[in-house]
Amino acid sequence: MTSPDDLANWELAVWALGLLDGATSFVDVEDVSLRAFELAPTRLAWRTRPDIPDYNKCSKALRDADRRRPPLLLKTADGLRRQLTVEGQQWIERNRSRMNSLLHQGEAVQEPRSRPHLRMIAEVERSEPFREWLSGHELPKEKWQAAELLRCSPDSDRRIWKERLEVLRSAANRAQRNEVLSFLDELAGHHPEWFEEAGR
Questions:
Q1: In sequence order, what are the beta bridge partners of 65?
Q2: Which of 180, 191, 103 is nearest to 144 (CA)?
Q3: Mutual orientation of helices 143-150 and 158-174 as an angle, nearest 10°?
Q4: CA-CA distances (angstroms) from residue 163 to 71, 169, 194, 196?
Q5: Cβ(66)–Cβ(73) below 8 Å
Q6: What is the pLDDT, as a whole number, of residue 6?
Q7: 61: CB partners within 8 A, 6+ apart
Q8: Which residues pair with 75 in a beta bridge?
């Protein structure tokens, strides 16, 4: 079952704006930040003062929401107020049940410990080589394609390649993304020369 910890901070910001009638009017960013803090005080508070919203965390949540594509938020020229776009309103509707469920379970929304791993897996799942592999095509033949997946250079040391592969494999296993794990295993098996040290 999904946990409140799986929510991204930008989702809290968009949801807070929706709760503040941001579908029909521009809302001050400070009001959005305070509402998001009320929804997830453990996550958005100062480290040493859990009763005070951390400006940097709240501001970053809004900036991350601003960067969503298609755009979910409109902002005034001075950047001090936000309103939901049509896509933002649609996001609210699509996620209403999930957000209500997660934010009304009586649990504190903690800082997500595994979020970087989930982002890495999502990047693999969105990648062209993975999508082609899913649809029955061959694995990447070009080393640069795998290098992009692993966030390294094609001429990086094989130790780096192996390390990046293992980090992704571990993340896929932890997130129970079996297709990603199979893809990575097949990639390593098909191109051992990219991952194994010479002479092994």
A1: none
A2: 191
A3: 60
A4: 36, 10, 12, 11
A5: yes
A6: 72
A7: 9, 10, 12, 13, 33, 36, 44
A8: 82
Report the C-alpha gap between 163 and 154 in whole angstroms.
Answer: 14
Unique residue bearing structure tokens 């936000």: 82
Tokens representing 32 are 């959005």
Could you read off the pLDDT of 88-141 as tens digits, one per residue? 999 999 999 999 888 874 444 544 444 566 777 888 888 888 988 988 878 888
Cα–Cα distance, 136 to 155 (Å, whole number): 28
Q: pLDDT tens, 15-39?
A: 999 999 888 888 999 999 999 999 9
Secondary-structure class of domain 4-103 per CATH: mainly alpha
Domain segments of the chain as ranges: 4-103, 115-195
- Rounded to whole angstroms, how far apart are CA atoms 33 and 17? 9
Respond yes or no on whether the N-terminal peptide bond of residue 154 is cis (omega within 30° of 0).
Answer: no
Does the pTM exceed 0.85?
no
